[in-house]
């Protein structure tokens, strides 16, 4: 058996709003609610299951490897939505994208404060 990540639970202040946000930005679909979860399936088969959480949410990091064309489309949605974005995960370089490993990448936050990233080259792939 090959080990594969199947799903992970993502804490949210509003699971419907957070699932819709991610789906809209990445150009994906929100799946029907399943028990307490609102799932968004990523094309590689991994599902992010959004669940309502009360109180503070500890921000997590979710990185999405995309093609150059997908980056352009998604980045256009980020700009159109007026979202703040950064070239780094520590939010020190606002309004920039990075060129790590010969690709492009940027970070932005979801409605619950999770750190989302789109990148066109895996880290360490170099060029």
Please write out the topology.
Blueprint: E1 7-12, H1 15-26, E2 38-41, E3 47-52, E4 61-65, H2 68-80, E5 85-86, E6 105-109, E7 115-119
Parallel strand pairs: 1-3, 4-7
Antiparallel strand pairs: 2-3, 5-6, 6-7
Which properties best describe this structure?
globular; three-stranded mixed sheet; 127 residues; alpha/beta
Describe the model.
The protein has 127 residues and is an alpha/beta fold. 20% of the residues lie in helices and 26% in strands. The chain contains two helices and seven strands, in the order E-H-E-E-E-H-E-E-E. The protein has helices at 15-26, 68-80, and strands at residues 7-12, 38-41, 47-52, 61-65, 85-86, 105-109, 115-119. The strands form two sheets. Strands 4-7-6-5 form a four-stranded mixed beta sheet, with helices on one face. A three-stranded mixed beta sheet has the order 1-3-2, covered by helices on one side. The relative contact order is 0.20.
Distance between the termini: 33 Å
User: Segments where pLDDT lies below 50 for 5+ residues?
Assistant: none
Described by the principal axes of the CA atoms, the overall outline is globular
Figure out the total of helices: 2
The secondary structure category is alpha/beta
Rg value: 15 Å
Q: Major sheet: size, sense and barrel closure?
A: 4 strands, mixed
Number of strands: 7
Element pattern in H and E: EHEEEHEEE
User: Which percent range fits the helix content?
Assistant: 10-25%
Average pLDDT rating? 96
Strand content: 25-35%
Tell me the strand order in the biggest sheet. 4-7-6-5
């Amino acid at each position: 058996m090959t080990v594969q990540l199947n799903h992970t639970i993502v804490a949210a202040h509003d699971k419907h709003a957070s699932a819709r946000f991610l789906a809209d930005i990445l150009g994906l679909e929100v799946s029907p609610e399943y028990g307490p979860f609102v799932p968004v399936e990523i094309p590689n088969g991994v599902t992010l299951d959004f669940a309502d959480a009360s109180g503070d949410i500890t921000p997590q990091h979710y990185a999405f490897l995309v093609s150059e064309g997908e980056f352009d489309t998604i980045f256009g949605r980020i700009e159109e939505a007026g979202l703040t974005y950064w070239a780094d995960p520590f939010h020190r370089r606002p309004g920039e994208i990075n060129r790590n490993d010969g690709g492009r990448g940027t970070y932005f936050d979801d409605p619950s404060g999770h750190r989302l990233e789109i990148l066109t080259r895996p880290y360490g792939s170099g060029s």
